[in-house]
Amino acid sequence: MIYLCGIPFEFRRDTTYNIKDHKYIMSDTTTPVPAQNLTDGMHVVVDTLKRNGVKVVYGVVGIPVTDLARHLQECGIRYVGFRHEQSAGNAAAITGYLTQKPGILLTVSAPGFLNGLTALANATINGYPMIQISGSSNRAIIDLQQGDYEGLDQMNVAKPFCKASYRINRPEDIPVGIARAIRAAVSGRPGGVYLDLTTALLESVIDQDVIDKCMFVTEDPAPAYMPSAQSVEKAMGLLAQAKHPLIILGKGASYSQTETDIRAFIEKTGIPYFPMSMAKGLLPDDHPQCAIAARSFALENSDVVMLIGARLNWLLSHGKGKHWNPNVKFVQIDIDPEEIDSNQHIQAPIVGDIASSMKCLLSALEKQPFHADTDWMDQIKKAEAPNVAKMAAKLSLNPTPMNFYSALNAVKKVMDKNQDVILVNEGANTLDDTRDVISMQNPRHRLDCGTWGVMGIGMGFAIGAAITTGKRVVCIEGDSAFGFSGMEIETICRFKLPVTIVIFNNGGIYKGDCKNLGGGSDPSPTTLMANAQYDKMIEAFGGIPYNATTPDELQSALEAGLTADRPTLINCVIDPSVGTESGHIGNLNPKVILQK
């Protein structure tokens, strides 16, 4: 008896075996016998992923998936090993967003699975195609709750947090299981999918001829979803009649990679627009029809608003309240019919994928062209003038120590000259102020926390973006946000990625000068270490450290980082007293009403 793939396997002494060219061969007979071409579950998983175009897998290895990662590398799929599954999952999610193909996360069972689940849920909420593949323990022991090593009913735990959750139990079902996961991840509104691979499946042995008959490549997993002609006609009629129309671009529009048609529609109609955060760059932020600097005025006065890949969720005040014209009417393009009327009545829904919908709208515009009243655009420009002046005044100041705006002014000078650099951004004030200050000229070059507003995406997104695009990445982090995934700077250095991290260090969550209300020696709940030297961390892993206390130092360090042959990290020292509670969404943070 010998062990094959971790399980006992009894070879017949009169038979020759060959498992995926690993030459597990035993024979003591002189009688010629035909070789049995066997394979195992691990190799079938790897082969199926490769056939379906998977080029990169992110993860953290351990029982029972360590050999699976080795075989991924063996067959030419790049494996990027992380220090924590959540960051690996974030890298997979942003890979899906950038490529329109599911990013792949590989984790161990139970705790590793749970660590990745936050990223999977975030991918689903944000519409990023992603597949989390996790090894799992003995089904018989788990189902009877008898206490297996890392035992957890992972498939059912995952169900509420993703689009679909599957378990593969038989090796001959691996091609179908992976095909189902791919289709679920990218079809309709994209999202996260969980795929459970049991230990028994991974170590199962099967004849290669049986697998060959089961193997196939997934065809057209995200088919076009054409809108009805009637819906397009109604939407065009509503827009043509509007006195003050407005277009809002969401990250779904950016995901669709149809910026050429979106730009053509906006320019031909003359309708003002503004982008949500991750849609910045679909059209350049300095485009003459961009109304982002007069967002509030535009919302309060628009009579028809067209949503392209944007949802009326909390980021748009649910389409109602003081920020909106109470008589506004909506046109909404969305691939999910259940999204229509989710917060407000949508008078002209266009249910279809954005690429197909925009082609239909452009075709309709050719037949019945219209152009928005130029006076409306003039009103918006007049409203934005004081806001532009206020921002210029903020950026012109040079306090000591730096505040967010003086630091960002230095960053802006560098980024304006390097417009093809991908920007990753997270934090509270760091997120809000960077979004307002740093202009984007190219689509899918700004990556941030998105719909949920979760912290900890920074390092994973930076790694995923660098791996996927090969471009330089600048990651602007609040010091609190950096703490969620900071250990991944070792991953960045290990893979020698072109990433520069800028940490806005004001020594706190929001800010660092808050007091302990109890008067004790412990720091307040929002206080971190103002004298923390984050630059020392990357030095430990062979990267290049910088410490910046002035805008000139910050600008020089960032310029050097963008040409360096190694990853760099800039500890940007910010005044601990600057920053507001919860950034721009302080209204969502309950306060103490009754004081003692």
Structure description:
This protein is an alpha/beta fold. The chain has three domains: about 40-215, Rossmann fold, CATH 3.40.50; about 230-380, TPP-binding domain (Rossmann fold, 3-Layer(aba) Sandwich); about 395-580, Rossmann fold. Helices cover about 35% and strands about 15% of the residues. The strands form five sheets. It has a six-stranded parallel beta sheet, with helices on both faces. Strands 18-17-19-20-22-21 form a six-stranded parallel beta sheet, sandwiched between helices. Strand 21, helix 22 (about 550-560) and strand 22 (about 570-575) form a beta-alpha-beta unit. Helix 3 runs parallel beside helix 4, helix 3 crosses helix 18 (about 460-470) and helix 16 packs parallel to helix 22 (about 550-560). The relative contact order is 0.09. The model is unreliable at about 1-20 and about 20-35 (pLDDT under 50).
